Amino acid sequence: MNGNNDFGVGYSRISWTEGALASHPNVESLTRDHDIYFDIVRVKGVGIRLVCLDEYACGITRVREALAAFPDANVIFIGGNWNGYTTEAKEFCLEASLGLYNSSEISGALHREDFWGYHKRDQDGNPSYPFNNR
């Protein structure tokens, strides 16, 4: 089940994600299904169903594709610190109470009850998104 999925996510991304999730202090347990779909039981907070992608520039189309394939997902993880998402994709996810995060954001989101609303913040306290800062 490693690296065999319809989204082209490689074993290294899946393995890194699994390790990061398993070692997070608010993750009690996790299981992986369909190669890139993680069911996460948290110590505090509702469960998370995370789709692991590896998208340099994640737009609304990719978000919708992930949700079509995994309709119960409530977090879309797009991979490394260098990966980002469009404002349209983030706004869509916020309105639907879905998390959309890269690896620099996922840890903070896993601590929050309202995991979909987690934002890194700039020096003025405003939400800071990966592609908006380049």
Topology of helices and strands:
Elements: H1 11-22, E1 27-33, E2 37-42, E3 48-52, E4 57-58, H2 60-69, E5 75-77, E6 84-85, H3 87-95, E7 99-101, H4 106-111, E8 120-121, E9 127-128
Parallel strand pairs: 3-5, 4-6, 5-7
Antiparallel strand pairs: 1-2, 2-3, 8-9
What tags apply to this protein structure?
9 strands, 4 helices, alpha/beta, single chain, 134 residues, five-stranded mixed beta sheet, two-stranded parallel ribbon
Can you offer a commentary on this structure?
The chain is α/β, with parallel strands linked by helices and 134 residues long. The chain contains four helices and nine strands. The protein has helices at 11-22, 60-69, 87-95, 106-111; strands at 27-33, 37-42, 48-52, 57-58, 75-77, 84-85, 99-101, 120-121, 127-128. It has a five-stranded mixed sheet. It has a two-stranded parallel ribbon with strand order 4-6. It is globular. It starts with 10 loop residues before the first helix and ends in a 6-residue tail after the last strand.
Count of runs of 4 or more consecutive helical residues = 4
Strand order of the largest sheet: 1-2-3-5-7
Measure the end-to-end span.
36 Å
Order of helices and strands: HEEEEHEEHEHEE
Mean pLDDT: 91
Could you tell me the strand content as a percent range?
15-25%
- Report on the biggest sheet: 5 strands, mixed
State the low-pLDDT regions, or none.
none
Task: Determine the fraction of residues in helical runs and give it as a percent range.
Answer: 25-40%
* Strands, total number: 9
Shape: globular
Radius of gyration: 14 Å
- Main structural class: alpha/beta
